[in-house]
């Protein structure tokens, strides 16, 4: 049960931190991870240049990390 | 490409490595660092840990409609790193279908994003035998009126036989045939399912039986039931 609680904690924290990202940026992170979309595919889907996808993803990751690690203490 | 020169760059590279969005050259650099740079290796491990809960969230979601087509397409590109990546994501997804937990519900809203205040209309069943990897995944969208069936690990039935899909339980007096299954993505009409009361809809179990070619001659399963999966609501 302990492991389950820990898992629930990290899932909840991730959900909360993802929720703080704007919709498009949240979706891009999730879809890259779960659907295996490439930068090029994300660029086509979200109608932005590939380089913008890269900077957008990185900014989202940096914000996620700050949010998650802040919460973890 | 040189090693990232700021801690933030290193984090971004590690994060994108785990996300799977690096281009070929960046990925090669990340893999080189992973082998020789403990800072980078621990950054990657931390990212894997941070993002891992998403794998649980994927359970109740129908995989992207074109995932399998894309895998097939990329199998035609020998040596492509994308194949490995897609295999990894497919594996995530398959593993996650075995673990339909309440946890998933906490993240699922990001992906399915149902309109607020509406009753559940997405249901999913991982059709399998004894907790093994799903053989078929069945997703029901009552709003659209479709039952989407996706073969995950199904092999062709023996010669002269067909797989037939049944809805069992959920207030049904006897199994209802939903049709024959082909080893490809299929959309079946959900009309029959909806004839059962919605209160017991979630108690429906899908079963796949092995029938003579063309389906059961009696309207009820006549061959062995090979796999089953319970229908669970996902929103």
What report would you give on this structure?
The complex is a heterodimer of chains A (73) and B (235). Chain A has 73 residues and is mainly α. Chain A is 85% helix and 0% strand. Chain A is built from 4 helices and no strands. In chain A, helix 1 (2-19) crosses helix 4 (50-72), helix 2 packs across helix 4 (50-72) and helix 3 (39-46) packs across helix 4 (50-72). The two termini of chain A are 22 Å apart. Residues 1-8 of chain A have low confidence and may be disordered. Chain B is of the alpha+beta class and 235 residues long. Chain B contains 8 helices and 9 strands. Chain B has helices at 7-19, 24-36, 38-51, 53-57, 67-75, 81-97, 102-112, 191-194, and strands spanning 122-127, 136-141, 146-151, 161-169, 176-181, 186-189, 204-212, 225-230, 232-233. In chain B, the strands form 2 sheets. A 5-stranded antiparallel β-sheet of chain B has the order 6-3-2-1-9, with no helix packed on it. In chain B, strands 5-4-7-8 form a 4-stranded antiparallel β-sheet, with no helix packed on it. The longest helix of chain B is centred in the middle third of the chain and has 17 residues, at 81-97. In chain B, 34% of the residues are buried. Residues 94-118 of chain B have low confidence and may be disordered. The chains are: A mainly alpha (73), B alpha+beta (235). The A-B interface holds A 7-8, 10-12, 14-15, 18-19, 26-27, 29-30, 32-39, 42, 53-54, 57-58, 61-62, 64-65, 68 and B 8, 11-12, 15-16, 18-21, 23, 47, 49-58, 63-64, 67, 82, 85-86, 88-89, 92-93, 103, 106-107, 110-111.
Question: Strands, helices and their partners?
Answer:
The complex is a heterodimer of chains A (73) and B (235).
Chain A: H1 2-19, H2 23-35, H3 39-46, H4 50-72
Helix pairs in contact in A: 1-4, 2-4, 3-4
Chain B: H1 7-19, H2 24-36, H3 38-51, H4 53-57, H5 67-75, H6 81-97, H7 102-112, E1 122-127, E2 136-141, E3 146-151, E4 161-169, E5 176-181, E6 186-189, H8 191-194, E7 204-212, E8 225-230, E9 232-233
Antiparallel strand pairs in B: 1-2, 1-9, 2-3, 3-6, 4-5, 4-7, 7-8
